[in-house]
Amino acid sequence: MAKNTQPIAKRCRALGISPAVMGYGKKTTNRNPGGQMRKKKSEYATQLNEKQKVKFVYGILENQFHTYYEKASRMPGQTGVNLLVLVERRLDNVVYRLGFAKTRRQLVSHNHFTVNGKRVNIPSYQVKAGDVIEVIESSRSSVKFSKLLGEEAPVVLLPSWLERDKNALKGTVTKLPVREDIDVPIAEHLIVELYSK
Q1: Helix, strand, or coil here: 163?
Q2: Partner residues linked to 154 by β-bridges
Q3: What CA–CA distance (Å, rounded) separates 133 from 80?
Q4: Of 26, 86, 147, 162, which sits 20 to 30 A from 72 (CA to CA)?
Q5: Which of 56-70 are b and which e, b meaning 16 or more Cβ less than 10 Å from the residue's Cβ?
Q6: 147-154: long-range pairs with CB below 8 Å, 24+
Q7: What pLDDT does residue 147 have?
């Protein structure tokens, strides 16, 4: 399986996003503190930057991203919004949003989760309204999951389209996400303009 191995802090800085969006609270970089970057970007560079942001935040490589774009363009409604909704519905993102993983790049491929009672280890799996995502029984006793329950469990700010059972490692997709639910700072119309050329 291919994956992006670029340094997180360096990539965040280049794309102009906070490492917190990626689930990293303390990542920083001290390289090039003065910022010797060109001040004015071309139109193409701005559009490409938005596309790279989405790919980086959600952990998607080029071919898969292009497939998402093609699918979004065939769906009714705005292509840019459809694209963001498709990537937001990925199982690895839902697990992150529910607070079961610290970042989007963890755990799903290691077979820790079920969707509606069936094990799923495909990060790009598209959840639907009504799906129930749960940590499998054999993984619940591990340190990374056991600390998500009880008094000292971290507080997770859930988006309106997800619900989480506070006493169990279980979450439900109550409805499909809409654009207002996606808090990642992305100008999706620029991605559509890039692909429309």
Answers
A1: strand
A2: none
A3: 27
A4: 162
A5: bbbbbeeebbeebbe
A6: 148/99, 148/100, 154/99
A7: 80
Task: Name residue, tokens 């279980």.
Answer: 170
Size of the chain, expressed as the number of residues it contains:
197
CA dihedral 185, 9, 22, 25 (to 10 degrees): -110
- The rounded distance, in Å, linking the Cα atoms of 19 and 14 is 11
Q: Terminus-to-terminus CA distance in the chain, angstroms?
A: 31
Cβ contacts of residue 42 below 8 Å, gap of 6+? none
Least Cα distance to 64 among 54, 77, 74 occurs for 54
Cβ pair 172, 114 in contact under 8 A: no
Tokens of 10: 């360096």
Q: Are 86 and 72 in contact (CB under 8 A)?
A: yes
Query: Which ranges constitute the DSSP H helices of the chain?
Result: 8-15, 43-58, 62-74, 79-88, 91-97, 143-146, 188-196
Rounded mean pLDDT of the chain?
84
User: What pLDDT score does 50 carry?
Assistant: 92
* Three-class secondary structure of residue 151 per DSSP: coil
pLDDT digits (tens, 9 = 90+) for 135-146: 998 888 888 888
Instruction: Specify the pairing of strand 113-115 against strand 170-173.
Output: unpaired
Q: Are 121 and 111 in contact (CB under 8 A)?
A: yes
Q: Considering the entire predicted model, what is its pTM?
A: 0.80
